[in-house]
Structures are given as C-alpha cells and as structure tokens.
Predict the structure.
Amino acid sequence: MITTVILCTYNRCHSLAKALESAAALRLPEPDQWEVLVVDNNSNDQTRAVVEDFCQQYPGRFRYLFEPQQGKSHALNAGIREARGDILAFTDDDVTIDPMWLQNLTSSLRDGEWAGSGGRIVPVWPGPIPRWLSTDDPATMGPFVAFDPGTGAGPLTRPPYGANMAFRKDAFEKYGGFRADLGPRPGSEIRREDIEFANRLLAAGDRLRYEPSAVINHPVPLSRMKKSFVLRWWYAYGCSEVADSGPPGNSKWQLGGIPLHLFRKLTRWMLQWQISIKAPQRFASRRNVWYIAGLMVGSFRLWRRKTQPAGKV
C-alpha cells in the first residue's frame, strides 16, 4: 500500500524547507511505501529550487508538482489527481512533523473501516500569549489552527483540520474533490474547504477517526497574535460557513436573505462586548460580533446570487 502526503505551498520557501526536513524523517513500517508530493501553487520565490533539492537528496521520496491556477483548493485537487497513494495525508508548508505522524494518522485507514482521520495540531507560540486571548476557549483558538479534541482515540464527530488529516483516495473518487469556491485564493480569505469535504463524508454516514498520537506542531506567526487578524478570520469564517451550509437556523423569516434571528444575536453580543469587564470575555463577545457579521454578509450574498438575473451579480 502506498501513502501520499500532499503539501500545498505558496511563496513560503523558508518555512517549506523546515517542513520538508521534518517530513524526510517520517517512518512507515515495511513493506508500506510513501511519498511527499509538494504542490507549488504558482509561487514566485525559491519554492521550486527548495523542493528539487529534496528530490535530489531523497530520490523517489519527494515529488514536485506545479499548479498555475491560484487557490488552495485548486492545488489540493491537483495533488489528489497526481498522487500515487491509496491513502492521502494532508499537511501545511509551515509545520514541524513528528516522525511517527504518518504511521499514527493512517494506520486505521488500511482496512476500509474508516474513510478518514484527523490528528492533534499543537500551536507553537512565538511569545507570551496576549491577556485578551483565552487558550481554554476552543472557538478563540480556531485562527491558530489548534485542534485537540482530547487524549482518547476514537470516532470524530467534527471535521479535522487540513493541516493534519488523511482520507482514503477512494473517498475523493466517490465524493469529488475540494470545492474551488472555498479555500484561500487571491482576493478572498474564505477558508473551510477542509471542513466542507469532511462534512460531506460524515453526512453520508462514513466514519472518521481521531488519532491524538498523530501530532503536528504548527507555528503561530506574530501577525496572527493581533485582534485585527482574529476578527478578520472569524468574519471570513462566518461567510464561508454560509457558502458551505447555507444561512444558519430557521431561515423562514428573512430580510434580504439574512435570517432575522441573526439581528437579535448581533445586538446581544454587541451589548455583551460593551459590558464585559474581563479582557478574554470582552474579546470573545467582540469576536462573536464579527462572526455573526460574516454570517449576515454571507447570507445576503447568497440571497443576491439567487435573486439577481444571470450576469447581473
């Protein structure tokens, strides 16, 4: 059986080199084979040279693929098409991979009982955590790519994150690839391409497994430890949630496609933001305001696309 690690990258040649260094130390038991397929999503830095250096150092272990169409989902789908593996694992271009990661993440996928799996993502902080950020709040941790449902392995009832997940290749043959309207691309920070795909499998009754021993260390850039970044992330997450699943809740009563209950929630969290005394609670309320604003804007855009004549949107 062959396992392919798909790693998409764009203009991150320095962090990519460190990620590939840790990937070179991966271990799988014989006779299993594995490869790392790096998908260059139209980078204009030294990405190609970095990958080709690893291809020369580790013949047959690393492969380079160029995908000119910008957008992470395009890169992911190109990687899926070109992968040689029966099992496809996914990670990011700025992580450090534990040597046993691939074996621990994929061992449960070999007999067909599980369609996919997800592992633990540990954030690596560049300095002291701001006092407004509560690491005990799973919602606040979303922008930092932290994923830690606990220490026990077992069924996943929520989608894993794209930095640490794996699926049998036949899942993509059955359900299609990642949606190109989701995922980061020029002019859009809307994400959720990983969550939407996993939700497709869960909705169809396929089983996903959580493997806490499959560990990825994910650095947190200083630029992300700012309120402005976290708020923008949650606004984009709200927009992408609507693009994925439609307007939230009972959408019978709407104004311009926006469910009326969102106006009530927006008012509540704006008030909570103003009256909260403790910094983490105050910021969590503010974060919810931005998230709901994203839901509202996403709902309006969806309504406008559906109601406007073709070519007018």
Summary: The two ends are 48 Å apart (CA to CA). Residues 162 and 267 are 33 Å apart (CA to CA). The longest helix spans residues 279-307. The longest strand covers residues 208-219.
